[in-house]
Amino acid sequence: LVIEKINLYQMIVEIFKLRKKELLQKDISYSINMPEDTLVHCDRIKLKHIIENLIQNAIRYNCQGGKIIIKLNDFNQDSWSLSVVDTGIGISIEEQEKVFERFYRVDKSHSKKINGTGLGLAIVKDSIEILSGRINLKSKLNEGTEVKIVIPNFIMNQRGEMNENL
Ligand code: ATP
Ligand code: MG
C-alpha cells in the first residue's frame, strides 16, 4: 500500500466526470454530501478503484431519471465512512449475501441485458479487507441500494512510518 493524503471530494468529482455520458443517457442526477476539503489517508489506487466500482453499479443498476447520493457518514481521526445510495432496481434479501461472490450476477440484471462480469463487488471486498475496512449492503427490491464502506485512516508514526490507526 502507498498511503497518502487524499481529497475524497475531489476524487469522487473526478469519477463522476468520467461517467458524464452514461449519467446523461440515463438522466441520472447525483449529489456528493461532504465538505469539499475532506481529507483522508489511504492508498489512492485502491480507494479510487473501490469507489469507481460502487458508482459504476449505482449507475448501471439505476433507473432512467434515477438519483445517486454519496454521503460521508462518520469522519474522525481513526476512520471514516462513506455511503453510495441509488434509486435503482435493488437486490432481494436472498441475493444480497451472494453479490460479493465472484462471478455472481442477479438474474434480473441478466434478463435486462445489463453488461458486467460479476467481479466488481468481489474485488471491492478484497480491497476493503486489505485496507482493514468493512463493507455493508442494504437494499430493497425495486427501491434502491445503499452500500456503506468504513475505512480506517492510516497515519504516520513518530519514526515516519505509515501505520494503521485503529
Ligand atoms: P462488474 O464486474 O462489471 O462490476 P457486475 O456489476 O455484474 O459486473 P458486481 O459489481 O460484482 O458485478 O455486482 C454483482 C451483481 O450484484 C450485479 O450483477 C447486480 O446483479 C448486483 N448489483 C450490484 N450492485 C447493485 C446495485 N447498486 N443495485 C442493484 N443491483 C446491484
Ligand atoms: Mg459492478
Automatic annotation (TrEMBL):
<protein>
    <recommendedName>
        <fullName>histidine kinase</fullName>
    </recommendedName>
</protein>
<feature type="domain" description="Histidine kinase">
    <location>
        <begin position="1"/>
        <end position="155"/>
    </location>
</feature>
